Amino acid sequence: VSFFQEIPQAAPDAIFHLTAQYKADTDPRKINVGVGAYRDDSLKPYILPVVKKADAILFNDETLDHEYQPIAGQKSYTTAAAKLILGADSPAFVEDRVVAVQTISGTGANHTAAAFLKKYHKQGAICLLSKPTWANHKAIFNNVGIEVAEYPYWKPSTRGLDLEGMLGALEKAPEQSIVLLHACAHNPTGVDPTKEQWQQIADVMDKKKHFPFFDCAYQGFASGSLDQDAWAVRYFVQRGFEMFICQSFAKNFGLYGMYGIPEIGSWTGMINLTTGLSCLFLGERAGNLTVVTRTAQQAQHVLSQLEILQRSEISNPPAYGSRIVDLVLNDKALYTEWTENLKTMSGRIIEMRERLFEKLKQLETPGTWNHIVDQIGMFSFTGLTAPQVKVLKEKYHIYMTENGRISMAGLSSKNVDYFAEAINDVVR
Ligand code: PMP
């Protein structure tokens, strides 16, 4: 008998399946607004100019090697990442109650945080997720044996935040629940609470002793301002909460995956793939789990346990992506350049929102579309229904997830009018 005989075939991942369908489509008008990766106005993947510079510096740095990294990652990296989200003058830093470990991008940060909570948080505690949320959240928590429940978030009638529903659910949840909050640029809705709404959320969280679990995948990418996108997290720190913050550098550094053959000045073409230099295939996936505790001693205890957890899971985090981030965050000139690159990306996305909105208005498309410009970040929750999404795919070769979410990065100055005309047709 074969043990593997019992293993059923799983359904393909919805988003990656959508991309495969898009790739197989030969219509020249096709548009992919499914996947959440940034594209420039020619719809090409974008390597940030500052990342190219950092690449060149790293390749020419003869002091670097391929030794193991520390279990928690390089301190210069984890500290810079933690300062980026908390602010260098955060009371948590002043009081020495911040620790961090490098993770495999944002997904790894979520996983490590969830695994730690399963081990150490109140037994049987549930994690509350926004309805809807990034599809992976439920899978990540369930994987480590934490049950999830949902709090209302999206209000279809206003195409905005269901604040009352959210506060009510947080109020009703058992005390000391884990509450997952998107730090900014909520995925998939693009709807963030206002400052006043965050205050109300913090009030209930405080009253119910809930644990804030911030997922921050879009800092600087949403508004174009690193500080503005960190506002909610910093506000919770100010209010005295202890918390986890999961940081991803996939979007804001354009470090999504693996870098194949480097195209760096004179190095191009000089590298022989048969030499077996492992540095040709560079693991990027840079993330960080930042922990804010109440005391300095707690912080050290938590770090020691996180290191034990990390050791059993990945032993040592990958070096390359974190070296790029480390270099940029710790160098004044590169950092300034990075903030400009962030403005280029967020600016293009904001411009696409405006162009789409204007075109829909011009076509007198039925319904209200202000949410397209009011929402923030990579995604927009259009309010399109599953049958409309289906027509868009079959008739217009436009690919998006069934829930009507679009990635603004899939639009460009060349296809936005066609996209608007297609929407205009399917909603009539
Ligand atoms: N959280 C959210 C809300 C996300 O949208 C993403 C990216 N899709 C992530 C975490 C993590 O992504 P990555 O592992 O690529 O950093």
Automatic annotation (TrEMBL):
One of its GO terms (biological process) is aspartate biosynthetic process. Keywords: Aminotransferase, Pyridoxal phosphate, Transferase. Residues 29-423 form the Aminotransferase class I/classII large domain. One of its GO terms (cellular component) is cytosol. The keyword Transferase applies. GO terms for molecular function: L-aspartate:2-oxoglutarate aminotransferase activity; pyridoxal phosphate binding. SUPFAM superfamilies: PLP-dependent transferases (SSF53383). Its EC number is 2.6.1.1. Its cofactor is pyridoxal 5'-phosphate. It comes from the Eukaryota. PANTHER family: ASPARTATE AMINOTRANSFERASE, GLUTAMATE OXALOACETATE TRANSAMINASE 1, ISOFORM B. Homodimer. Belongs to the class-I pyridoxal-phosphate-dependent aminotransferase family. This is aspartate transaminase.
